[in-house]
Amino acid sequence: MNKQKWLIVGLSLAMAATLGVGISACGGDKEPDTPPTPTEHTHTYDAWDYNETQHWKYCDEHGTDKSNIDETTKANHDFTNGDCVCGAKKPGEGGDETPDADLDTREFYVVGGGMGTLKNGTWDGPKTGFQFAKAPHKDANGNTVYTFTMELYSADEFKFIEKNAITQETDESGNSKAVWHDELVFTLPDLDVSSVTGAFARASETSDNITVLKDMDGEYEFTIRTTKDGDMKANKVEVRLVKELEPLGVESQYEMYLVGKIASKATSDWPSMLGVANVPSKCYKMELQDDEETFAIEVELSQADQWKVWNYKVGNVNAGYYPTGMDGNLSTGGGPDGWYRVTWKVGDANVTITHAHRYTVWDYDTEEHWKKCPQDNEKDQTTVAAHDFTNGDTCECGYKQEADPNWKIAPDGTFQGYEGDFENIVIPANLKVFPAALGDLFGKVNDANNYPNETNWKAVKSVTVAPGNKNFKMENGALLSMDGKTLYAYFYYNTATEVTFDSVETVGYSAFSYNDKLQTINLPNAVTLNGYAFYQTTALESVAFPKVEVLNNSAFSGCSMVSAEFESLKTIKGLVFTNCTQLTSLVIGEKFESLSTIFVNNCKQLKTITIKAVTPPKAGSAALFMGCTALTNIYVPAESVEAYKTANKWSAKADIISAIPTEAVSVAPAEVAMLPEKKD
């Protein structure tokens, strides 16, 4: 901010008529007959000047002009040895016995409003204005000195007034006399602001008020010098910048509200402009936006409402109504009842009113829904979504899906039956629970089995999930739970020879039944394989599921794989390996704990079984091995050979139980892609 430390302004103290103000700077105009000065004038600071508290030296080359001062000599008065060296009289001592007897008795005030000293000021006059302080002694030129210091911020507005001003008038006899008046306002035309370096200006072309310009925030000292005898030519008003101030932020100057008669808020009111501390609680407060200069609010308005925007910051010259005055109240402008966005920008008298969409009403078609604004039916694109029938056959938008007669679904979303054709299956939106076994959907071969009817299963040509179903999804040819952790069915019409499902943890009953194309199935995170999961997968070459812990009944019945490896297996429930006519080797890891019935059945080419569990797994009541005529070796940890040979059911094969060969490696064929077990 470019501010001079001393700003000298010649101010006429208008008393009776238009007063001439003589302002001459040191080195200024000379008499017409004076020849031009050949060299630049050099100041000589040899004269004292002072106010009530301080003194300084100035260059008195040109008489009454005291504007050229020596800042280095500025100091407080020193009355240690009596009167100060500058000529100021020691208070209560020296000089006249009554030093104030011939001082001017005028009263000068500042009135206005602002965010600094004037924050609590008014325009009412001397009773509420800020009074200049009067020095107890005249200055060296016999003038009475009045001073007032105030903090001023950009847009602060003020003026000087005088109480009991004196003017020179002529009596009936033609004699001149001093006449005192109650109040005389010093107006802007009476002030010379040309030397203030842009700090102050006229508030407007038609206003007599003074306003502080942008970025000229500071503490200013104003000094008025007068003579009691009414000699106006000697009167001066000096303006000095004491110190610069940091500009105030927008939030310090503005607190914006909507006020008036607003039907949607019965307590809204028309407050007076200032001094009503409780009014904001009755009004709508506007919020300052990210640009730090715009205030905005969204409010519900009716056509009959009448209101204004109001700055509540008491003392700010811009406190008041927008548009200014009480005429021309704001309204919806004939628009419909509803929500509107009202904005006001600092320094702008205009208020912008635009329609504010409130998407409060649902709309929909047969596949999706969205919210719309009831005033103009505009669609909120962010709410467009497929219908959600998670909680029943009616979506939250109000759309009720037409029930598919082919599907029998309980009110809680549980599958109860399917009577449609099997070529193009659409999983309905209100299905939450898939059948536990695919045989329930495709028809069992007989009541004793869980695998589906092969004819129906292979008739399927496409499977889709209806919009709005939040429980199932189709992915990579399989029907999965929405979180991808459960694989319910891998459909026969998919012709891939290798598939991977990284997220699957549970494989459902009969999920891969009758598939004669898949050679490799990667399930790196599968934990549970349910019954008949790979029933009759006749192209499968090998399996190696690193995290599978549970195998259920007939999970691999009729499979064609040559080898199988389960490093994390804990439990076998039911007869799992049945009629695996190509199986030659089986490897189970050290976590194997129990099996409930026949371990392997009718696997006629099975030659070796390797079990890494130190403790023989607990066996059920049935024989462990049936129809495995080629089985010649059961390998177990060396330290557990004798335990296995004597353990229940294992003892029946004691003659072929021996220690795991040290050179033994995984039996999984190298040409089959296997995913490594993920480390925890």
The domain count comes to 4
Helix proportion: under 10%
Number of strands: 48
Radius of gyration: 50 Å
Backbone shape: elongated
Summed up, the helix count is: 4
Major β-sheet strand ordering: 30-31-32-34-36-38-40-43
Main sheet specs: 8 strands, mixed
What is the CATH third-level topology name of the largest domain?
Immunoglobulin-like
On the 0 to 100 scale, the average pLDDT is 80
Uncertain regions: pLDDT < 50 for 5+ in a row? Answer: 1-38, 94-98, 231-235, 665-680
**Spatial separation of the terminal alpha carbons:** 64 Å
CATH architecture of the largest domain: Sandwich
* Strand-pairing-aware structural class: mainly beta
**CATH class category label of the largest domain:** Mainly Beta
* Strand-residue proportion: 25-35%
What does this structure look like?
The chain is mainly beta. The protein has 4 domains: 7-17 and 43-244, Immunoglobulin-like; 250-355, Sandwich (Immunoglobulin-like); 390-459, no CATH class; 471-659, Ribonuclease Inhibitor (Leucine-rich repeat, LRR (right-handed beta-alpha superhelix)). It is built from 4 helices and 48 strands. The longest helix is centred in the C-terminal third of the chain and has 6 residues, at 454-459.
